[in-house]
Amino acid sequence: MTQRGTAILNLNNGSAPIELPVLSGTMGPDVIDIRKLHAQSGLFTYDPGFLSTASNSSTITFIDGDKGILLYRGYPIEQLALHCDFVDVCYLLLHGELPTPDQKKTFDAAIKNHSMLNEQLVRFYSGFRRDAHPMAVMVGVVGALSAFYHDSLNISDPVHREQSAFRLIAKLPTITAMAYKYNIGQPYVYPQNSLSYAENFLHMMFSVPTEKYEANPVIVRALDRILILHADHEQNASTSTVRLAGSSGANPFACVSAGISCLWGPAHGGANEACLRMLEEIGDVSRIDEFIQRAKNKEDNYRLMGFGHRVYKNMDPRAKLMRETCHEVLNELGLHNDRLFKLALQLEKIALEDDYFISRKLYPNVDFYSGIVQRALGIPTSMFTAIFAMARTIGWVAQWSEMVSDPDHKIGRPRQLYTGTTMRDVPGSYIK
Ligand code: CMC
């Protein structure tokens, strides 16, 4: 980053104006560096929800929400979705460049080397209720990885960091698929290292010992695209959670478990599940207006799930790609007349013509379509967010690694504007 100039803060209280550096990155808005503001003025800034605050610098992902641009390490998401697979994207996010064929072979082999779970860890599943939400299981099992891999927990050692990254990328599909198999009471299917990342996941989800399973290539490609589109999204809530947890020196398994917890919420990764449930609840085109009116009613907390984004004030580029995949998958599976897909298209059309949504720049986001695609792939609704977590793990790991390897990183410790009771004495009746 470079200093472009200074901003002057005049407090109008007779004190001298304060000069604050203005820093530029390579793209995107400049930032006012307020790190010394408290020392200079005794003041903090106030920005709940980080509406105007950059929490860190990063070289990984860039979003221009007004133009609908998403870049991983400089490459547009549209090109990556078209020309690369998820393993290429993992390498890119982690190392900064796309792999050469040799680098990819070595990377792929290193990941596959870690795809199994310790058998003790497999026993954890039976401690959960069969009907536990897969995200609850994921939070527990991923957090428990820290209890198994003591040999890669020294976060100051780059080799340990890389080893933990490989373990997380490799084990998440196994953990996710096992959560599903446990839920439906089928035997666990172990990873098959001859298969691609996406195909192996489908194999662990859908194969059973009694029948041969061969995944449809269109479905494999669709899942791979879901993984690419969800791989990273700069400083979103769950990534910021992972960074904050990691800023204290916590190990990466614990940090990713914290990220999974954050992702679960319906305002974030839980939106894909909530969106499909919403479409099911609407049920028929004739009821769309009723739900749009509810979303617009300020007295009602109801929101159209899969619409709106903190950063995108234009069409989410991931939503465009997911919409395309949706068509491909539904055509391939002969589901082009799918009731919920038709309903989604109609809802999108009506919302995009409505002044409430236009004036607030509320466009469909990636979760609007990803639920429909996943449902067509045979993935149950309760698994949608778990698959998002599996895909986002690479982003969490890359962002965590970037932070930890920065020698200047500090523990994250926000300040507050206290609005509680001022100092007072404990009542006399309590004093013995
Ligand atoms: N339906 C109806 N109204 C909405 C919606 C929606 N989905 N989203 C925002 N608004 C309204 C909101 O009521 C507010 O109106 P007003 O200015 O009159 O008070 C205005 O739009 C701005 O909303 P906000 O809550 O200040 O915006 P935010 O940036 O804090 O929230 C969001 C972003 C994604 C949490 C929100 O749009 C939302 O709740 N959407 C539905 C959930 C969803 O689809 N989440 C997935 C996000 S994409 C996947 C991911 O990255 O995790």
Question: Strands, helices and their partners?
Answer:
Elements: E1 2-9, E2 18-24, E3 31-32, H1 37-41, E4 61-64, E5 69-72, E6 75-76, H2 77-83, H3 86-95, H4 101-112, H5 119-122, H6 134-144, H7 158-184, H8 197-206, H9 217-230, H10 237-247, H11 252-263, H12 271-282, H13 288-296, H14 317-332, H15 339-352, H16 355-359, H17 366-376, H18 384-404
Antiparallel strand pairs: 1-2, 2-3, 4-5, 5-6
Helix pairs in contact: 3-18, 6-7, 6-11, 7-8, 7-18, 8-9, 9-14, 9-17, 9-18, 10-11, 10-18, 11-18, 12-17, 14-17
The chain binds carboxymethyl coenzyme *A (CMC).
Labels describing this entry:
432 residues, single chain, globular, three-stranded antiparallel beta sheet, mainly alpha
Description:
- The chain is mainly α and 432 residues long.
- 49% of the residues lie in helices and 6% in strands.
- It is built from 18 helices and six strands.
- Strands 1-2-3 form a three-stranded antiparallel β-sheet. Strands 4-5-6 form a three-stranded antiparallel β-sheet.
- A hairpin with a 4-residue loop joins strand 4 and strand 5 (69-72).
- Bound molecules: carboxymethyl coenzyme *A (CMC).
- Carboxymethyl coenzyme *A binds at residues 233, 236, 267-269, 271, 295, 303-310, 360, 362, 365-367.
